[in-house]
Design a protein that fits this description.
The chain is an alpha/beta fold. It has one domain: TIM Barrel (Alpha-Beta Barrel), CATH 3.20.20. Helix content is 37%, strand content 14%. An 8-stranded parallel barrel has the order 3-4-5-6-7-8-9-10, surrounded by 6 helices. α1 packs parallel to α2 and α4 packs across α5. The chain binds phosphoenolpyruvate and manganese (II) ion (MN). Manganese (II) ion binds next to loops.
Length: 275
């Protein structure tokens, strides 16, 4: 019988290792990476100060949205190409590879030139024309699970990108359920399921996964213990004033403490042979 997911499925393969930023950062196959930064790029001062702080605390990539998918057209939509320039500047100053979301094929060339890890956001997980085009860019792709998508649909979406030749990192970021106490319901069980079904690295986003900063630490640690290959976490120096997703952003000080706990969980598990 033909394989269901010839490229994204495990099919007996070892865990894939994805290299980002000319090999300066690796994820998968025992390499753990934390992506941190603001939900959206707001200014040079904002992105640079957060980049320096998260780097000091052990983050290995900088996130920040330049093009933001917002539920309301009246909400801040991102700085666009100016935001991409600010991310580039933060990369030059800190050396951190940059992770940012592409929303339209209009900017393929800009992303191909400047972005180290191209994010496909949850809302675009099944934008098949975008998946096909981004897959041809020869840049790794962080593919977020759609808020109402099954694991089967996520692996099929990954298949679209992989067919173009790009490498893929899968991201669990919570799905919509009947629960209203959290923004989304973070499906931690997706981690062992994906690790079994696929050889691709799996990252968890506890920020969008819960929607509240005070739940981020617990879910980041749970995801680490469950065997995730990395995390993507929203960090803002002044969450109350953030232009986007402040309620789910942690401060750099909290991020530093969380990194210590993540490292402790990993070290403990590794001493016992890993998960
Ligand atoms: C984000 O990473 O800021 C974002 C919009 O994520 P998602 O696509 O998971 O909602
Ligand atoms: Mn966000």
């Amino acid at each position: 019988m033909a394989e269901k997911y010839p490229l994204s499925g495990r099919n007996g393969r070892e865990n894939a290792i994805v290299e980002i930023g000319q090999g300066s950062c690796k994820i998968g196959g025992g390499h753990f990476a934390v992506i941190a930064g603001p939900c959206s790029v707001e200014s040079e001062e904002q992105v640079l100060s957060i980049a320096k702080e998260v780097k000091r605390c052990g983050a290995s990539m900088l996130r920040g949205g330049a093009f933001k998918p917002r539920s309301s057209p009246y909400s801040f939509q991102g700085l666009g190409l100016d935001g991409l320039e600010l991310l580039k500047m933060a990369k030059e100053k800190t050396g951190l590879p940059i992770v940012t979301e592409i929303m339209s094929t209009e900017y393929l060339k800009d992303f191909a030139e400047d972005v180290d890890l191209i994010q496909i956001g949850a809302r675009n997980m099944q934008n098949f024309s975008l998946l096909k085009e981004v897959g041809k860019l020869n840049k790794p792709v962080l593919l977020k699970r759609g808020p109402s998508s099954t694991i089967d649909e996520l692996l099929n979406a990954a298949e679209y990108v992989l067919r173009g030749g790009a490498e893929v990192i899968l991201c669990e970021r919570g799905v919509r359920t009947f629960e209203t106490a959290t923004r989304n319901t973070l499906d931690i069980s997706a981690v062992p399921v994906l690790k079994e079904k696929s050889h691709l690295p799996v990252v968890v986003d506890p920020s969008h996964g819960t929607g509240y900063w005070n739940y981020v630490e617990a879910m980041a640690l749970a995801a680490t213990a469950a065997g995730a290959d990395g995390l993507i976490i929203e960090v803002h120096s002044n969450p109350a004033e953030a232009w986007c997703d402040g309620q789910q952003s942690i401060t750099p000080a909290l991020f530093c403490k969380l990194m210590q706990k993540i490292n402790a969980v990993r070290a403990t598990l590794n001493n016992l042979g890993g998960i």
